[in-house]
Amino acid sequence: MNKIYATDVYEYLPHSNCKRCGEDSCMAFAVLLCEGKAKLNQCGPLRLKEQANNRAALSALLHDLDELCDHS
């Protein structure tokens, strides 16, 4: 699997920059997700029913990222 970039994650975020996750922008949140410093459930808009497909795609993408990490 290739490296996952914040822009890959950002593609599936709501782009609302609502700051409900605690970050100033969805891109900043995407960076933290890639670094393993944030969790998907911190994004309020992503929990909405109409975001289910994006949430599932992000979950799979971040799962792949987690498998690439060396946690030893």
Task: Describe this structure as you would to a colleague.
The structure is a single chain. The protein is mostly helical. The protein has a single domain (6-68), classed as 3-methyladenine DNA Glycosylase II, Chain A, domain 3. Helix content is 43%, strand content 0%. The protein is built from three helices and no strands. It has helices at 6-10, 26-34, 52-68. It is globular. It starts with 5 loop residues before the first helix and ends with a helix. The model has no long low-confidence stretch (mean pLDDT 88).
Per-chain topology:
Layout: H1 6-10, H2 26-34, H3 52-68
- What is the chains' assembly state? single chain
Number of separate domains: 1
Order of helices and strands: HHH
Largest sheet: none
Q: Count the E strands.
A: 0
Q: Assign the CATH architecture.
A: Orthogonal Bundle
Radius of gyration: 12 Å
Structural class: mainly alpha
Instruction: Identify the CATH class.
Output: Mainly Alpha
Short summary of the structure?
This protein is mostly helical. The protein is 43% helix and 0% strand.
What labels describe this entry?
about 70 residues, 3-methyladenine DNA Glycosylase II, Chain A, domain 3, mainly alpha, single chain, 3 helices
